[in-house]
């Protein structure tokens, strides 16, 4: 872990807003990417990323292990995504069908494509499977790190990732067949 | 011909993540040399992994994100700051009111005590002024005077105690 990052975390833990802003600059790409992959909508992802960083600003005082900063941040983003999904489903009352949700979120260009893109296929997964495959393939965490972030056994991580990948493969193949 | 149970499909996902034990990885490598089905599955899973990685690798971050985060933190910090400031201000006002009320309640008692002490001082001065005259005229006067002073002090203390009791009684009535 580099000295500069350690310093930023140290200062941010004492409420230094400038140091925290530097952390936001450094990690906004990773945080936004995780949220965007999870909800599939830029505006919503921005809201989630913003919430996650604000939560992180207040929670960083309680962070014991500076070396686990990125995992810790990913956990906050993960929780913020779930909060958001819960709120969104409550707001809608009647959950939208997958194809309706997809149509409302995609640009006309995306909708005109008959073949399912990987982004569309990802949104078809259950939140648990989507979350875990994002942590692995988008964020690049190891199984041990994911187990730590999600607080589940490594064996569960392994089987869940396997199911998520195979489901994605099936969704994409189905798209090809109807092409 | 291999048996169906020898297929390694269950291991392929962890294999591409390098999360298998050396023994398991060896089994996979051995198996895919001869099994086309598992080899195809491996390639397609690798393709899914690569596609997913590439799809989000170059996602553009909203330009305003950092600013939005720091702005909402600033607002929250100001709110808690104002709350703290208001708390101190409120505590100040309350203690002033309490002090004022106490002083108002105590005022009659303090005045009474001051009046009593003033009278006591007047008596003391008068006695002091008569001392040289009486001392010369009456023998053993010093002894009598000392006795009288002690009695006077006891009576004064008694009066003071009664006054304090009356004072607190009055205050209770007022409340
Ligand atoms: Zn096989």
Overview of the molecule:
The complex is a heterodimer of chains A (179) and B (175). Chain A has 179 residues and is mainly alpha-helical. Chain A folds into 2 domains: 85 residues, Rna Polymerase Sigma Factor, Chain: A, CATH 1.10.1740.10; 70 residues, Winged helix-like DNA-binding domain superfamily/Winged helix DNA-binding domain (Arc Repressor Mutant, subunit A, Orthogonal Bundle), CATH 1.10.10.10. In chain A, 78% of the residues lie in helices and 0% in strands. Chain A has 10 helices and no strands. The radius of gyration of chain A is 18 Å and the shape is globular. The mean pLDDT of chain A is 88. Chain B is an all-alpha fold. Bound molecules: zinc ion. Zinc ion binds next to α3 of chain B.
Order of helices and strands of chain B: HHHHH
Give me the count of strands of chain A. Answer: 0
Low-confidence stretches of chain A: none
Number of helices of chain B: 5
Q: How many angstroms separate the termini of chain A?
A: 48 Å
Distance between the termini of chain B: 102 Å
Proportion of helical residues of chain B? over 70%
Q: Please state the CA-atom Rg of chain B, rounded to the nearest Å.
A: 49 Å
Total beta strands of chain B: 0
- Structural class call of chain A reads mainly alpha
Q: What is the overall pLDDT average of chain A?
A: 88
Tell me the quaternary state: heterodimer
Biggest sheet architecture of chain A: none
The kinds of small molecule bound in this structure are: zinc ion
């Amino acid at each position: 872990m580099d000295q500069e990052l350690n310093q930023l975390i140290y200062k941010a833990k004492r409420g230094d807003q400038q140091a925290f802003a530097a952390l936001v600059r450094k990690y906004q790409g990773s945080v936004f990417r995780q949220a965007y992959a999870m909800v599939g909508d830029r505006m919503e992802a921005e809201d989630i990323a913003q919430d996650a960083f604000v939560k992180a600003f207040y929670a960083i005082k309680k962070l014991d292990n500076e070396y686990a900063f990125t995992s810790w941040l990913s956990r906050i983003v993960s929780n913020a995504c779930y909060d958001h999904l819960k709120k969104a489903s409550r707001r809608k009352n009647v959950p939208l069908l997958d194809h309706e949700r997809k149509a409302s979120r995609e640009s006309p260009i995306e909708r005109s494509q008959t073949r399912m893109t990987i982004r569309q296929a990802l949104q078809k997964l259950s939140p648990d499977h989507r979350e875990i495959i994002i942590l692995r393939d988008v964020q690049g965490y190891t199984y041990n790190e994911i187990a730590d972030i999600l607080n589940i056994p490594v064996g569960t991580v392994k089987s869940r990732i396997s199911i998520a990948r195979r489901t994605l493969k099936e969704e994409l193949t189905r798209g090809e067949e109807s092409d | 011909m291999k048996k169906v149970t020898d297929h390694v499909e269950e291991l392929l996902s962890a294999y591409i993540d390098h999360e298998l034990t050396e023994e398991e990885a060896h089994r996979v490598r051995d198996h895919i040399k001869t099994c086309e089905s598992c080899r195809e599955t491996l390639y397609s899973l690798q393709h899914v992994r690569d596609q997913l990685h590439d799809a989000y690798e170059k996602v553009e971050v909203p330009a305003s994100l950092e600013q939005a985060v720091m702005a909402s933190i600033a607002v929250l910090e100001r709110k808690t700051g104002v709350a703290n400031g208001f708390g101190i201000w409120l505590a100040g006002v309350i203690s002033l009111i309490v002090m004022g009320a106490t002083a108002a309640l105590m005022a009659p008692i303090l005045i009474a005590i001051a009046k009593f002490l003033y009278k006591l001082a007047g008596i003391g001065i008068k006695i002091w002024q008569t001392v040289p005259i009486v001392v010369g005229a009456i023998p053993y006067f010093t002894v009598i005077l000392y006795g009288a002073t002690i009695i006077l002090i006891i009576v004064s203390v008694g009066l003071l105690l009664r006054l304090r009791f009356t004072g607190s009684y009055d205050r209770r009535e007022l409340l």
